Amino acid sequence: MTDSPPAFFPARARIAVLTCEPVGVLDYLAPEQGVRQGQLVQVPLGPRRVLGLVWGEGQGDFDLSRLRPVAKVLDAEPFRPEFLDFLTRAADYTLTPPPLILRMATRAPDLDQPPAARPVIVPGNAAPQRMTAARQRVLDVMAQHGGAGFAPSELAQLAGVGSSVVKGLVAQGALTQIEAPRDAPYPRLDPARPGKPLAPDQQAAADRLRAAIRAGGYGTTLLRGVTGSGKTEVYLEAVAETLRAGRQALVLLPEIALSAEFLDRVEARFGARPGEWHSGITRSERRRLWHMAGRAQVGLVVGARSALFLPFRDLGLIVVDEEHDSSYKQEDVVFYNARDMAVLRASICKAQVVLASATPSLESWVNAASGKYARLDLHARFGSADLPDMAAIDLRAEDMKPGRWISPTLEGAVRSRLARGEQSLLFLNRRGFAPVTICRACGEQIGCHQCDARMVEHRFQNRLVCHQCGDTRPIPQACPSCGVAGKLAPVGPGVERIAEEVATLFPGARATVLSSDLFHSARALKDTIAQISGGDTDIIIGTQIVAKGHNFPRLTLVGAIDADLGLQGADLRAAERSFQLMRQVAGRAGRQAGTEPGSALLQTHQPDHPVIRAILSGQDEAFWDAEAAARQAAGMPPFGRLAGIILSHPDLGVVADFARHLAANAAPLVQAGAELWGPAPAPIARIRGRHRMRMLVHAPRQAPLQTALADWLAPHKPPANLRLAVDIDPQSFL
Ligand code: ADP
Ligand code: ZN
Which atom of ligand 1 is nearest to the CA of 321? Predict the structure, then answer.
């Protein structure tokens, strides 16, 4: 650990004020004992007291007597200089005001409250006299969380019962209420416990990572291998080495993959559960984890992307699993990619990064090819040899009846799985019943009132839903435009429509639809996934949520209903995305060691499309190389740089005028060697009643893009209520 002492300010300090609206960085008088950089404080702001962070030495040259004093220094571990450095550079990189970034780093409740004792519930020693469904749910939640100490209200909330149910269980001795210290350290993970004996390529990869961790500097490694090749087992060895070195480790997972299964695996390996950080944890866990990260009293944190902004005291390893996953990109308030920020943070705090994927992002692929990242490959699936057999179904040659989406060939393949008692997965990345509802009398397509988007029929809910703003309304009887009744028709398939077709084709089969909108909680989704794994389903019909990390042992067939879906559109990453998604989905088939390889069938109208051919051939490297060459020829990322500027306002005239004004004053961009494309209406030209325009700034790789953008935008004050967002390295052009 680099241990430069934090700067000390005896008299006055600049405090970053962490309110909802970015106030900025203000000068305050230090308390008598002075303050240190990185300390959390409370400061007065108008009539309020707000959270602040000591940012630097006071600078203003006005009268000391006019400054207000810091109200209170909070009892939290001060942010380390390396962490402040990371936050500053993340702010610079993403062109975000520092207080907004700092707010992400202080997103824990009650930071200004002392760590008092609090009542928590632990298992009791008696059986309840009478078991009810509600009581059982409470006990199940306790069991699922290893008897973890929840506050009574949290436990009731998690179990979805009233607090009287918990009280009743306590009264009967089935649960016990104790006073526990609020921010208790996490149980120590034991790196000395043996892991699984590794296969030779796993061993080689683990050795390299361990050596890098022992050496103690920064480095990034791309760990590549198909799903099931044993990557997790390898990076858990890197975690073990990090713990042995007395440092902390962070494993980032796409939110949906944050499953109990993963936590169980960590527990099996290290004898205790890691800290968890994601949208599903309770307020008190959130607060505890935040403090324990700062005091190095949690060894391993498993979390979603925002865990990267926890104030770890000594972070030695960051694993980004499924590093290509688009959920690592946040496109709200602060636009950042957690993968890139992981590399930034590690380079500052001298940590190792492991980027794990079967289908790396093109950026990581290019960085590995150029030697900027190390690369480790796991070649085979653990314990079994093959990827699934993959083939195209040429829809032009199939006898497709109107209103049918499952071709006769795919139907036959599913039938043979049913006969053998195996599972099939039909994949279509489209939620709902039909993407378009059209009036056969006037041709009108039913659209959202708030957005420039079509309403999608969701038949299970019996409503039309806008996938942009979430607005819903009943499915109308008559056309809202011409008033003719009985002529509205769904066009095209969504997963619900495929489910209907499955019910017609395979009446005896048990089918389950997996689509994010059909599950009101993460737990409901987990339960369904567990049921599928256990064999309660013959045919799974799913959107992209099935692509990620679930292990369905009896699944031997994957059928992609429309493999062409992602190939359309002008998006820079269309090919890359399609390739990754199809590969991931195909990888769900035949994952289990010792069984026959599964098979993946791709329904397509363009079997000769280069992306489809690349998926089928299994020659990933040829695909990445060709895709990299095409991007290089066009000067596109990662060989050139892009920034998206998104402007929105309820009035189209206002947004168009301001966009034109910015474009007319783009000299700072030109001077930096960048070009401005647009303004143009964004592909979704209106969302939630706000008109949207978009510009793209394209620059050579070495150009000072951020400085040029700041110089360009800073002098122009946007009109009231106009939102301007800068998206460095945009993932999509929506
Ligand atoms: P990946 O992360 O590449 O998808 P995993 O690490 O999850 O792969 O491994 C896939 C499966 O194989 C898991 O069930 C895991 O427990 C098992 N496995 C991996 N490596 C070994 C090993 N060396 N010995 C025994 N089982 C292993
Ligand atoms: Zn809408």
Answer: 2
Residue 7: count other Cβ atoms within 10 Å of its Cβ. Answer: 15
Q: Which ligand is nearest to the CA of 234?
A: 1
* 317 three-class SS: strand
Cβ atoms within 10 Å of 724's Cβ, excluding its own = 16
In Å, the largest CA–CA distance within the chain is: 86
Q: How far is the CA of 630 from the centre of ligand 2 (A)?
A: 35
Give the number of whichever ligand sits closest to the CA of residue 593: 1
- Where are the alpha helices (H) located in 370-451, listed in sequence order? 408-420
Residue nearest to atom 23 of ligand 1 (CA): 198
Average of per-residue pLDDT across 340-367: 95
Residue 693 C-beta-side C-alpha neighbours within 13 Å: 21
Residue 197: alpha-carbon gap to chain centroid:
31
The runs of H, that is alpha helices, within 350-427 are 362-369, 408-420
Instruction: Name the residue with higher pLDDT: 158 or 48.
Output: 48
pLDDT on residue 257: 61
442 known member of a binding site: yes
The residue ranges of DSSP E strands in 533-593, in sequence order, are 539-542, 555-560
Q: Which CATH code is given to the segment(s) 640-728?
A: 3.30.70.600
Q: In this structure, what token pair is assigned to residue 715?
A: 């002098």
CATH superfamily of 200-378: P-loop containing nucleotide triphosphate hydrolases (3.40.50.300)
As its CATH architecture, domain 389-430+493-627 has 3-Layer(aba) Sandwich (3.40)
Q: Is 469 marked within a binding site?
A: yes
Confidence label for 392 from pLDDT (cuts 50, 70 and 90): very high
Q: Do domains 200-378 and 389-430+493-627 have the same CATH topology?
A: yes
Judged by its nearest atom, the ligand closest to the C-alpha of residue 466 is 2
CA of 693 to the centre of ligand 2 (A): 17
**Nearest one of 696, 605, 584 to 643, comparing CA atoms:** 696
* CATH architecture of structural domain 117-181: Orthogonal Bundle (1.10)
Q: Omega before 638 cis (within 30°)?
A: yes
Nearest CA to ligand 1 atom 20: 230
Residue 2 alpha carbon to ligand 2 centre in Å: 50
Distance CA 405, CA 423 (A): 19
Is ipTM over 0.90?
A: yes
How do 463-466 and 472-474 pair as beta strands? antiparallel
Is 479 annotated to bind a ligand? Reply is yes
Q: Which residues contact 351 (CB under 8 A, 6 or more apart)?
A: 218, 247, 315, 316, 317, 318, 345
Topology (CATH level 3) of domain 8-105: GIY-YIG endonuclease (3.40.1440)
- 349 known member of a binding site: no
Nearest residue by C-alpha to atom 10 in ligand 1 = 228
**Over residues 636-665, mean pLDDT:** 95
What distance in angstroms lies between residue 456's CA and the mean position of ligand 2's atoms?
A: 10
CA angle (525, 531, 535) in 5-degree steps? 145
Which residue, judged by its Cα, is nearest atom 5 of ligand 1?
A: 230
As a whole number, mean pLDDT of residues 256-271 equals 82
State the distance from the centre of ligand 2 to the C-alpha of 183, rounded, in angstroms: 43
The amino acid sitting at 68 is R
Look up residue 591 and give its DSSP letter.
-
Cross-strand partners of 28 = 13
Can you tell me the mean pLDDT for 535-549?
Answer: 85
pLDDT tens-digit profile of 428-438?
Answer: 989 999 999 99
Spans of all domains in the chain = 8-105, 117-181, 200-378, 389-430+493-627, 640-728
pTM: 0.86
Helix axes 133-144, 152-159, angle to 10 degrees: 110
Residues with CB under 6 A from ligand 1: 196-199, 202, 225, 227-233, 382
